[in-house]
Fold:
Amino acid sequence: MLKARMAVLVSGGGTNLQALIDAQKADKIRSAVIALVISGTPNAYALVRARENNIPALLISKKDCASQEEFEDKLQAALLENDIDFIVMAGFLSILSGDFVKKWPRRIINIHPSLIPSFCGKNYYGLRVHEAALEKGVKVTGATVHFVNEIPDGGEIILQKAVRVLRGDTPETLQRRVMEQAEWQILPKAAELAAKDIINTGKPR
Ligand code: GAR
Structure:
């Protein structure tokens, strides 16, 4: 069966990468294969997960590049060299420019740990998102998977799942519940949907 080749971009623990790996093993992702992991940071545990699962992995750090352009040129070269069809941003903390994103229309998806359009955009990532949700006192939060366009967290929404905020929650407990009850479930589903669409429309790159 024809499978779309997926690259997963990471920066941290890689629990969402793990959810993708598990879904692939369980045959819940059938239309794609995780062909490459790219980390933006050297010590990301996600790199260990890739290695343990025999997935080719690369470090491409913005800090080692003189400009955003050089960083994105390196990314693009690695993606093309590995015949990548679509990209999953799973906790990747570098924002990609409009110029880069335009090269991959409807071919980049991102997981964000809130119900967009709440608590999203340039300054909202990781624990900060949950701190903001608790400060606001929302009773329900969640996660969103969306296509990536030139507006941070502004692309078309693919899937969302709501999660309750509980009394006594800290940013850490809320983050964990959002991961367990929402992120790890909807990211593999959205990756499969995106891959299926690429295959069905007969447009692997
Ligand atoms: C996840 O909660 C993801 O939603 C978030 O970073 C975490 C990465 O965890 N992404 C963002 O905040 C993007 N704006 P992981 O490395 O364990 O998957």
